[in-house]
Amino acid sequence: MKDELDSKDIQILNLLLNNARLSNKEIAAKIEIAQSSTHDRIKKLTQKGYLKGAIAQIDHKMLGLNIEVILEIKLNKQHRSIIEDFRLQVSQLTGVLQLFHMAGDNDFILHVAVKDSDELRSFILDKLSTLEYIHSTQTTMVLQNEKVNNIL
């Protein structure tokens, strides 16, 4: 699919990847094309599925979420119904930033943000441990979270 993209499309995707709030006017000026062309290109990129939406990047610390962790989770069983139930249950838990279904040693990896160590303990013991199909968890603290967008 990348063959369908020309250099201007890639420039638009890069700009939006790093700041989804840019206006058509700003994008057009940066890549030196007409605003109407920018609008048409963004519309086509959306229709073809390259652009799926815009996401706000929130400073977790401003919300009092001072601790970020990666939770590695192994399940007891590998049944589709268990995996789907786990995904549904965990995606609704407050504090979950990202959920990854994995191949390898762990079945899932959760990226979680919490207020403090007490809230982390409660998240693990009171929320995760209530799911009977969890075999084990391992917690790793995130020291720094930096979003890097080097895909194009």
Q: What descriptors fit this protein?
A:
alpha+beta, Arc Repressor Mutant, subunit A, Alpha-Beta Plaits, four-stranded antiparallel beta sheet, 37% helix, 20% strand, elongated
Q: Please give the radius of gyration in angstroms.
A: 20 Å
Structural class: alpha+beta
Shape descriptor reads elongated
Distance from N terminus to C terminus (CA atoms, Å) equals 13 Å
Q: Give the number of DSSP strands.
A: 4
Main sheet, how many strands, which sense, barrel? Answer: 4 strands, antiparallel
Uncertain spans: none
- Strand-residue proportion: 15-25%
Would you give an account of this structure?
The mean pLDDT is 92. Helix 2 (24-31) packs across helix 3 (35-47). It contains five helices and four strands; from the N terminus they run αααβαββαβ. The longest helix is centred in the N-terminal third of the chain and has 13 residues, at 35-47. The chain is α+β, with helices and mostly antiparallel strands. A four-stranded antiparallel beta sheet has the order 2-3-1-4. It is 37% helix and 20% strand. It has two domains: 2-47, Winged helix-like DNA-binding domain superfamily/Winged helix DNA-binding domain (Arc Repressor Mutant, subunit A); 60-142, Lrp/AsnC effector binding domain/regulation of amino acid metabolism (RAM) domain (Alpha-Beta Plaits). Residues 5-66 form the HTH asnC-type domain. One of its GO terms (biological process) is response to amino acid.
Offer a concise description of the structure.
This protein is α+β, with helices and mostly antiparallel strands and 152 residues long.
